[in-house]
Amino acid sequence: MNENVSAEQLRLFIERIETLEEEKKGIADDIKDVYAEAKGTGFDTKTMKAIVRLRKMEAAARQEAEALLDTYKTALGLVD
Angle CA(32)–CA(34)–CA(36) in degrees, nearest 5? Predict the structure, then answer.
């Protein structure tokens, strides 16, 4: 009997995961559409994606990443 309960629980978990994966794909498609719309109005989507990544970061981590980028740019002579 314990095996049946475990099998049923497993099936339910798998079904939930499958449903969430489908929803995730739908959301990813929606995000893609928004980027395409933004590109169509003249926005640079690479820059937008970089901004989205930066906004996900905590302020201290973002400042550290920007400082490191500035250091590397300076070292390579990319700063005027």
Answer: 70
Low-confidence ranges of the chain (pLDDT < 50): none
Instruction: Report how many domains make up the chain.
Output: 2
Structure tokens at 23: 């929803």
Question: Could you give the maximum distance between any two Cα atoms of the chain, in Å?
Answer: 74
49 and 38 in a common domain: no
Write down the pTM of the prediction: 0.73
User: In this structure, are 37 and 73 located in the same domain?
Assistant: no
- Euclidean distance between CA atoms 80 and 71, whole angstroms: 13
For the chain, strand residue ranges (E) read none
Q: What are phi and psi of 24, to 5 degrees?
A: -60, -40
